[in-house]
Amino acid sequence: MLRQLKSALAVLALAGATVAFAADPAPAANTPPASNTAPANNMAPATNTMAPSGEKLTDPQIATVALTAHEIDIERGKMAEGKTKNAEVKQFAEAMVKDHTAGKKEVMDLAKKLKVKPTESPVTKDLKKQAAETKSSLKKLKGAEFDKAYIDAEVAYHQAVIDAVDKVLIPQATNEEVKTALVNTKPTLEGHLKHAQNVQAMLQTPKM
After folding, report:
1. Tens digit of pLDDT per residue, the chain (208 long)?
2. What is the rounded CA–CA span in Å between residue 143 and residue 141?
3. Which residue of 53, 67, 133, 156 is surrounded by the most CB atoms within 10 Å?
4. pTM score > 0.70 for this model?
C-alpha cells in the first residue's frame, strides 16, 4: 500500500514540476473525442509518504482527502477561468469547477449522514502543500504558457487520482457507503482525464 501511495505522490509531484518549469510535454497519445463529463461524485487521491509503513487511512481521513482534492481543483479551475483566453481551456476549467463543487457537496452530505468528522492526515497536508506550490507557479504564467502548464498538471493530477482511488482508497475504505461512493466516482474521473487529454492534444497541434 505504501508503495502505491508513493507512486501516486510521485505523479502529483511531476505535475507540479511540469507547471514550475513549463516544459514541453511528451506527444499525447490518440484519445477519444471529448465526451460530456460524467455526473460528479468524484473522490480524490491519497498520496502519503509521511505515514509509517503499514498505516491505513481511516474512513474520516479518506473523506477528508476527497474534500481537500475537490477544493484544490475548484480553486485551480477558478484561476484558469480568470486567466485563460482559450475557449477550450476555459470550457474545461468551468467543467472542473462545476463537477468538483457538486462532488464536494456529495462528500459533505455523506459525511454528515455517517456522522463523520473531517480528520486531517499526512495525505491532506501533502495535497495542500503541493497545491500551494502549483498555484504559486501557475500565477506567474499567462497566455499559452499558462494554458499548457494548467492542462498538463490536470492530466497528471487526474491520472494520479484514478490510480489512488482504485489501488488505495477503495481497498482501505471500511464503510460500504464510502466504498460505493469511491467506486461510483471512477467514470467521472475518467471523463475528466479524457477531457484534459483532448485539450492537451489540441494545445499541442500547430495552428495552420
Report:
1. 434 444 454 444 434 444 443 434 333 334 344 444 433 333 333 333 333 334 789 999 999 999 999 999 999 999 999 999 999 999 999 999 999 999 999 999 999 999 989 899 998 899 899 999 999 999 999 999 999 999 999 999 999 889 989 998 999 999 999 999 999 988 999 999 999 999 999 999 877 5
2. 7
3. 156
4. yes
Residue type, 5: L
- Per the CB < 8 A criterion, the answer to whether 94 and 81 are in contact is yes
Residue 97: count of CB within 10 angstroms of its CB: 19
Which residues make Cβ contacts (< 8 Å) with residue 10, sequence separation at least 6? none
- Here the CATH number for the domain that contains residue 157 is 1.20.1260
Amino acid identity at 55: E
Element (H, E) at 59: helix 59-83
90 phi and psi, to 5 degrees? -60, -40
Greatest Cα pair distance in the chain = 56
For 16, the enclosing helix (H) or strand (E) is helix 2-21
**8 neighbors 47 (Cβ within 8 angstroms):** yes
* Structural domain includes residue 52: no
- Report how far residue 152's alpha carbon sits from residue 29's, in angstroms, rounded to the nearest whole number: 13
Owning domain of residue 138? 2-21+60-204
Burial bucket for residue 81 (CB in 10 Å: 0-12, 13-18, 19+): middle
Residue with cell 473531517: 118
* Cell matching residue 158: 487526474
